[in-house]
Structure prediction request, 199 residues.
Amino acid sequence: MPFVMVGRARGWTQRKILGVVALAGGGHVAVTTLLGIGLAWLGFELSDRFEQFVDRGIAGLLIAAGGFFWWRHLTGRGCGHAHRPGCDHAHDETEAATATASGKLTDRATIWTLFTLLAVSPCEAFLPVYLTAVPYGWRGVAFLSAVLAFAALGGMLLLTTVALAGWERLNPRWLERYEAAVVGTILGLLGIFVLVVPE
Prediction:
């Protein structure tokens, strides 16, 4: 929504809005991928030293991450990117959208502000998934990075297109409300899968 708000306020075409989303999403994916590569490398190092514990350790971390997201959901801290009322953190995206839409910044500064907002907030829900690549080596890391790029960029572009077409009229608040619970469930199930299914 910040991209749509800013783009409409500044009179951008739909093509330019989607281009800015792709640029900012690319930064988001690049930072998440770099952090994921670092996490996978750490997993490789630990795998060499503690081979018999790797699968259980990865499964435990995924289940713990799932529990963390469920805790965020149950305590009202799991508002994700939607920033519903009651969130206990700053609403940087909305504040930036207001500042950039008001004309205080040039188009170039506006674009780089939106880029920076996404680039400095990696996909925390996907980072633990990089641990599942440890048994498969760098090929597994490359596969997960491709999945991240396709899903994140594709999702951002799709949701922006839908928002431009009037997403708010559909009132998707129920999805925003359960975002952390859905992520927690997926991570928990992935952890159980790693624990139960041999590599």
In short: Confidence is low (pLDDT under 50) at residues 80-94. The chain has one domain: 2-56+85-171. Residues 2-56+85-171 form one domain. The helical segments are 2-10, 14-49, 54-74, 92-101, 107-119, 137-164, 173-177, 179-196.
